[in-house]
Amino acid sequence: MSTYQPKPKDHFTFGLWTLQNRGRDPFGVEVRDVFPPVEIVRTLSELGAYGVNFHDNDLVPIEASLQERDRIVAEFKQALADYKMKVPMVTVNLFTDPVFRDGAFTSNRRQVRQYAVNKAMTAIDLGAELGAEVFVLWGGREGTEVDASKDPRQALQHYAEGVNYLCEYVRNQGYDIKVALEAKPNEPRGDLYLPTTGAMLAFIETLAHPEMVGVNPEVAHEQMSGLNMYHQVAQALYAGKLFHIDLNDQKFSRFDQDLRFGSENLKAAFFLVKLLEDAHYTGMRHFDAHAYRTEDGAGVQAFARGCMRTYLILQDKVRRFNADAEIQGLLRTIHAEQGEGTLEFSHDSLKTLRNLAFDRVAEGARGHGYEQLDQLTVEVLMGVR
Amino acid sequence: MSTYQPKPKDHFTFGLWTLQNRGRDPFGVEVRDVFPPVEIVRTLSELGAYGVNFHDNDLVPIEASLQERDRIVAEFKQALADYKMKVPMVTVNLFTDPVFRDGAFTSNRRQVRQYAVNKAMTAIDLGAELGAEVFVLWGGREGTEVDASKDPRQALQHYAEGVNYLCEYVRNQGYDIKVALEAKPNEPRGDLYLPTTGAMLAFIETLAHPEMVGVNPEVAHEQMSGLNMYHQVAQALYAGKLFHIDLNDQKFSRFDQDLRFGSENLKAAFFLVKLLEDAHYTGMRHFDAHAYRTEDGAGVQAFARGCMRTYLILQDKVRRFNADAEIQGLLRTIHAEQGEGTLEFSHDSLKTLRNLAFDRVAEGARGHGYEQLDQLTVEVLMGVR
Amino acid sequence: MSTYQPKPKDHFTFGLWTLQNRGRDPFGVEVRDVFPPVEIVRTLSELGAYGVNFHDNDLVPIEASLQERDRIVAEFKQALADYKMKVPMVTVNLFTDPVFRDGAFTSNRRQVRQYAVNKAMTAIDLGAELGAEVFVLWGGREGTEVDASKDPRQALQHYAEGVNYLCEYVRNQGYDIKVALEAKPNEPRGDLYLPTTGAMLAFIETLAHPEMVGVNPEVAHEQMSGLNMYHQVAQALYAGKLFHIDLNDQKFSRFDQDLRFGSENLKAAFFLVKLLEDAHYTGMRHFDAHAYRTEDGAGVQAFARGCMRTYLILQDKVRRFNADAEIQGLLRTIHAEQGEGTLEFSHDSLKTLRNLAFDRVAEGARGHGYEQLDQLTVEVLMGVR
Amino acid sequence: MSTYQPKPKDHFTFGLWTLQNRGRDPFGVEVRDVFPPVEIVRTLSELGAYGVNFHDNDLVPIEASLQERDRIVAEFKQALADYKMKVPMVTVNLFTDPVFRDGAFTSNRRQVRQYAVNKAMTAIDLGAELGAEVFVLWGGREGTEVDASKDPRQALQHYAEGVNYLCEYVRNQGYDIKVALEAKPNEPRGDLYLPTTGAMLAFIETLAHPEMVGVNPEVAHEQMSGLNMYHQVAQALYAGKLFHIDLNDQKFSRFDQDLRFGSENLKAAFFLVKLLEDAHYTGMRHFDAHAYRTEDGAGVQAFARGCMRTYLILQDKVRRFNADAEIQGLLRTIHAEQGEGTLEFSHDSLKTLRNLAFDRVAEGARGHGYEQLDQLTVEVLMGVR
């Protein structure tokens, strides 16, 4: 099983907040001790991760003075150097503080929007200082419970103004940073604007600098809406917009669980890994999850190890699937009549289509062999072939 | 209550298929007699509708000869003329026939894709002949149960080829027709590609002629994913892409129910009507729903009347909401500090933001008055103010 | 609108915790000040409520000394007397403290189970002291994320042991208190045991004293599973087990929202009120919800007022529905052939059934008039008839 | 892999309807040929199944004359004998025919209820003739879309009358047959009464002969409500009421998919198999699912083979889990302080509880090791340990 040992070249990253999670939930108080950032860096390094990401306030408390901020950042940088850990991504917390209770970029109050943009710029500065290449933006309070309170068209306008400002700022500062927007359908708000990766991809096309903005799809967030994560990530890749990804797991259509990657929907996790590997995705494999509230520090480490280990096991399953003669033979048959490029419009092609000799009934009677294909897939997944 | 009497100027339309629905479902056979298209035209006209829409095969059976087709269409045109009914939209059935069992535009088989495009062009021709301005495309079989069977990136490529071909065809023929894509998350396939209106809006931006392609959001389809229809339609309006709309209702996160408009989620229906009215949406108010399986012909008429009547009642509620002094007073307070245009990037604005004097704690302590606002909304809805 | 003014005889109650809610959620810290129990009693009394309910630790902190406890309880009793407020129900908090992180009655650790039972007895003692007639038990941590950790059959056995112990204790002490079990499908645990009111009703029949145990269905908890609350409460009434009820609201199939009663699903709320009123339910109308995180103290009061006001408006709608000649006429037709008591087994009835003259096809062709019935219901709800 | 070859002793059964399924769905017509019952018997026998179950009308059309019925049954019996196949269960179709459009046992029309009971008795007679030991009852139309149409308390009363009549009939005829009730939350009705296995278990306790009535939980039906099937079946076992089981699969919170067992939620399927095996469940492993609409006859066979094969693979995983030294060591630690029988009420035990020396804070700080336990479970499932 030594093959499932994570190494920096696997590009696994975790959020500081994932190991910082102390097990508080809507019905319970904290159960675990504080896990200081520097200790997290060391732990993740020892476990084989490549890097660590964070929200501004995971590292620097919102109330910190500039002096405290500098001391904290210096100490953190030293830890990164000591343990050879990178910070490939940084993000901003626009949801914890009461000031954002009705949104940050979509607040009905101008000064809140301004403050939010300012806070995001400061986070970007910190990211740039630590070498981050991606700035993730999750608008955790951009939404409503009371639809009478905001015109959603205006809210999108405000949202766009905020993102546009950040893009201009990044350009102005000459930072080599891309922006990745993260969707979520609800929780903590009743409904969040731009609730799916698809909605985010559409929103990006309305921005001033779409070329520097992409998405950060999260498994659990899409599954909260009952959507197929594999299809959503494929659309992001199709659009050239998969800038980052949040790996975790979730039972469909319920509260945000942020479970260990692959712990609930193994088959869905397999296809997601297959897509990332087959597409030669070069970005980070970032885990945004946390240990169950039942766990202590040892359980937090088991959680982190498990995320990476399951990814590597699934990566191995992908190799087996791609090398399985029976599966690949079936797929060749299935794809034999696929054709390509046949649907380009021209007078000739139009004539061809209009005169298509096609036996609809015979074609409709063909079976596709998908039960067998799926069974073989499941058996690869269970390790019996 | 005569104010709730629908008139052609209200622009209500129904699909032929909605009144044709014979009550068949996965566990039961048909319970109602055939309702011939000509009779439906008469009935809808008498009920006050503006027009009727259809899938090609709602009117012309898939097996019809050209001669039969011409006879059927002529008879239908006569009925439209007799009863002063329009056909503002036409669509194509790419899901009933066994030939589409694994998709139409995304089939793994080239000839199926070609046949599907051809069928869609024929439907467009028929629409053009009858004066339709919108061609709706719902890819009811574009998806999978077995994710091993298709690369979803290639499926999107195939999907785009199909839509691009249709756009070129419309341009080539000089038709004044726009294309409206309709999303659905699942059913009849395990998962459908482009499952939400957001995903469709993003997909449109990858097409060859995005300017002639928009969306046709359906209430029930978004609610199947637990999404807020009001927000999704707002995004379509924000993107200038609301070309058509399907009004109906649905309990969240379950099978596609296609219930009478406003029969389940009154508050959601109210905000949707409010958005369409406030935005001065000029398109059709199209109902895509059907009577319960418990109903006979009289029930089908009650269903159609109910859809229109509830829309008009909600339209009246919107007027009351917009004229309610207490509500509007609350909203003025809520929006008092909204400001506009303050987030355009410049050296000056950057300096302003960086030096923002802002009392985060005081702002965070403010209450927003949304419980009161929502209660007043609910009371308008219940007719007690 | 003075008719919608709540009065003590309406038997509205709130949990202390509902007004105590400070707006903390999984992604945000507290936004509202502490609202002391005595102040809550006064406020609720002024708003027209009948009483106030609480978890042990809503009133007495878990760390309080006996002396502090006595001081707090005395002060609280004085407030109840001063403001003529009752405590019809008491409950126990078995979920906040870390000790319950893997369950209370279903913990894998004997001492945790013993401690939980002891804590519950102390809560019952306090309830008895204050005149409570119902002890609600919500096992907020009785469940799992990791199904390998517990045999669910043994967990149910442990759960039953705990409830049985409490029943014996109540009998032993001679308290006039009934136990009401509250179900929830998930959150905070991945899955909670006995996830629906139906499951609770079944569990009760396996207890040592089923006659003293009933249920406390909560609107939001059933709707989290997409279930029809009206049907679930009807089953509880049918079984003679509706001992208490938690009124609030919730969008289906998502996180526990605890929204203001009637704020999301008006039609569902209407039928629930109709059932309680038609069945002459004599228990409390208890609200278990809280104000949005956007609110301050004024919003908390608006929330509480709104819950009661909406109940009273719906009560009025029920009267109108029951008095509406057209609706009642339709219902008489629908129920005309209902018959009663015809299905008691005997040789004669068997012969009757075996020789039933019945025109299946004719009966199958009948329409039921439900579209019309539902439309009229919706119109009553919207106040246009 | 020969170990995964099904044999009659494995007690696998299929419904006739599962292989009869012709791929019709709400949006598409039939795609597969008729598969005659006698051919199904042969096929299932060759695949290694133990028996075949059916609804009355799967075998005998509703319009069949007595003579036709006798011919069909004789031919079927011969096939059973020829291929050594059993009929362990029979059920009745109370949902396909239009006569049941508003329910069978809960219809508002007395004659429909009488007809339904009569039809069920005839099905029971047929089952008895063929040696069935279980009669499954799924009330596929017992529910509503329009809650104004029925008092749900009366509906339950009618439901109980029907089941009671059948029980008396079975007793009267001296049949050795038990009744198993099957729950489903919705589809084809908007909401079905008694929507969960829990609700059914509770309902059974209100019947005249609860001792002869149990449940038939179906994986997909519980998962449509987002419930944990493992927990629901455990409750049925706990109550001594698991008389039959329907194995299949389903994505959570959507339409009824009836997918191949284990094809979607492998971990959930594993725990279900574990429960059945650990509890030494002696009943049938019945599959109620069908092949995808993409399949032809070969695909239908692949589907049936896959169901059984996956069960056997999971059975093997259960053996490995139960024999895994690291997992069992972890479980011994987790359960070390479980204790038993400590919560029986007595003056002594009360005194013990009241004086419990217990360090709440220390206990609350303990970690439970569940991340590690779950990771090891997932690794057993993936075949890497």
N-end to C-end Cα span of chain A = 17 Å
**Count of DSSP helices of chain A?**
15
| Beta content of chain A | 5-15%
Mind summarizing the main beta sheet of chain A? 8 strands, parallel
- Number of distinct beta strands of chain A: 10
Please tell me how large the radius of gyration of chain A is. 23 Å
Going across the major beta sheet of chain A, what is the strand order?
Answer: 8-6-4-3-2-1-10-9
Task: Name the CATH homologous superfamily of the largest domain in chain A.
Answer: Divalent-metal-dependent TIM barrel enzymes
- Shape label of chain A: globular
Oligomer description: homotetramer
- CATH topology of the largest domain in chain A, which one? TIM Barrel
CATH class of the largest domain in chain A: Alpha Beta
State mean pLDDT of chain A (0 to 100 scale).
97
Give the SSE string of chain A: EHHEHHEHEEHEEHEHHEHEHHHHH
